[in-house]
User: Fold this.
Amino acid sequence: MSCQHKQLAQGRWQKLPLTTQFANIGSEVERALKWKNKNNSKYFMLAFERALELIDLTARDKKNIKRLKELMRVREMLVDYFLYDNAYHSTDAQWQKYFYYFNYASRRDKKGDRHLFCPSAIGGEGGSKKSNAA
Assistant:
C-alpha cells in the first residue's frame, strides 16, 4: 500500500483536531461504500486503502493516545466488514451513522457553534438556575 496522503503524512494531519481526522476517515469510508455498492473493485480498494492510511496516521498522532483503543477497533471492524466475513455484523448504514457524528462535530467546531450540543442551549442541566427567592 503506497502513501496516498503525502502532505498529511508529513505532519499536517497531526495539526487537525480528532473530530476532523475522524470526519476525513469517514469520507473515505463513504467513498469505499459507494464503490463497493457499484461493484467497482478498483475504486473501492483505493478508497478503502486511503481510509486505512488515515486511520494509521491518526493512530500515530500523540494527542489521540486516549482514543487508540477505539481507533484500532474501528480499523479492525472495517477490515472485517470490507475484506472478511463481517463477524461483527456491521452494515453500511451503521458505518455511515458512526462517521456522521464526527463530520457534524468537525463542521460545528470549524464554525464555532459549540453551543449546539450544550444542554443549557435546550433548557437542560447546566443552564442558568432560577432563584426560588421571591
Confidence is low (pLDDT under 50) at residues 115-134. The chain is about 60% helix and 0% strand.
